[in-house]
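Running co-folding for 6-O-phosphono-beta-D-fructofuranose.
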Amino acid sequence: MEKKLKRIGVLTSGGDAPGMNAAVRATVRAAINNGIECIGIRRGWSGLINSDFIQMNASSVSHIINKGGTMLYTARSKEFMEPAGRAKALGTCKLLGLDGIVAIGGDGTFRGALALSRQAAEAGQDLQVVGIPATIDNDIGCSHYTIGFDTACNTAIECIDKLRDTMQSHERCSVVEVMGRHAGYLALYVGISVGATAVLIPERAPDFERDIVEKIRHARLSGTTHYMIVVAEGAGSAVDIAARIREEVGLDPRVTVLGHIQRGGAPSARDRETASRMAYEAVMSLIENCGNRVIAAQNGVLVRLDMEEALQMTKAFPMHRYQILEDLSPARGFHT
Ligand code: F6P
């Protein structure tokens, strides 16, 4: 006979992302409206280790759908990476009578979830975990979309549009660093959206002459007098790139590192809606005794993937969009 789910926990872990609150809200409401109690675990996995939790009710998640950040706080826990830390976490789960956990975060969060559920199984403890992909980097292999990406793109675009005004007035070059330690999704999407002169991403080994000098030269020849260079954090430092532009191209660039601004702010419609649907699906999955899953977006629909398999999946970086960026440049038609 299927085990009846009585109580679940929800947590956010890793770097925060706009839309996490919407996912927490939907988890809590979907659970409560299906007769399941919900506990909010604070500060990610470390909250499970340290028994840092709050009882959630329908109104504890009122008025958060429109808020950036996460009401449950978030953290990256080194202790949880060790079996001893996870044993403590399992103790808390037992104490709280948790049958399942909804873990909202990135790859690291899911790796923690998988390790926890394996350790639980070894100890004969029944604990099902379901992951929801949330990171502004959009770099989770199993899901075409991750919560927070759209809002972060919009924030970066708004900032760069403002920069463009002043760069255009002064006929300057701007080097803007966007987030993305290992992934260029944010840089590329933003670059296309602002009509950047050049974009550097970690997925393509940078060649300064080809990727910057040539681009600026062609833009100059087409009559452009200001240049917008977008650099993903993982592709190099904006400060270093600006210094090279100063030395080798003779421009006097201004550097802007957008940094954590991109992680905050009210979530976009896409992030609120996706987060709500993913969290609803996560709770349904637990109710149907379908644990150790990641709720992933694939070709516009949500799918429940085995967590271990999900963690091994990779997605192809849309390199053809890099070509689109280049082909849309006004300098494209100029050949010297
Ligand atoms: O969440 C992903 C991310 O924003 C990366 O793009 C960035 O490199 C990293 O987190 C920054 O992390 P922290 O908040 O620890 O500075």
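Result summary
DSSP finds eleven helices and eleven strands in the chain.
The longest strand covers residues 7-12.
Job closed.
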